[in-house]
Amino acid sequence: TLGTNPICFSFPRRGEDPLVADVSTARVAFYGVLGAKARGETLPEDAGLDKHGNDTTDPAAVLDGGMLLPFGGHKGAALGIVVELLGGILANSGVVHDTTNPKGTNWGHTVIVIDPQLLVPDFDERATRACSAIRASGPGVRLPGEHSQHVARAAREAGVLELPSDVWASVQQLATGGRWKPSKL
Q: Which one, of 95, 100, 99, 113, lies nearest residue 10 by Cα?
């Protein structure tokens, strides 16, 4: 019943990029389902149901009247409901099973901004120390958003954005209203 219902938090850090946690409350984000379908891949177990309510790993079945499942069982479902209410009803956009204001392209966004310096004057410094301690807590520990920030920085420095050919084909098709037919890439 719930969709991807993404939620994002960003926290300033002194002398570093902000910590950005941007996650879907579904086990697999909607665009992950589209990507898996385009690549001919299956979804992880417990990621979706088909239109009859049966478990499926087939992205096409999820997209054909099925649904995504939340991550984390009942806790993920609770967070998904909170995001649905904040991003749907509070933004006066479409929500699940609301025939007067249906979902579809009627997506909502709610942005809540808090200036942490008004509450804790040294917030950015303390956030930097906390994140450094977390990163140093074990080998391979990575903070949310670090990989994406690294990829974005490298792309900016190189002046190039690499996209998989199936993604680029989709972008070109959307850009031309579906009229563009991909040739050999």
A: 113
Cβ contacts of residue 36 below 8 Å, gap of 6+? 28, 42, 43, 59
Q: What band does 184 get if pLDDT is binned at 50, 70 and 90?
A: very low
CB 62 within 8 A of CB 68: yes
Full-model pTM: 0.73
pLDDT at 5: 84
Amino acid at 139: P
CA–chain centroid gap for 87, Å, is: 14
Residues 137/124, Cβ–Cβ less than 8 Å: no
Check: CB of residue 4 under 8 Å from CB of residue 29.
Answer: yes
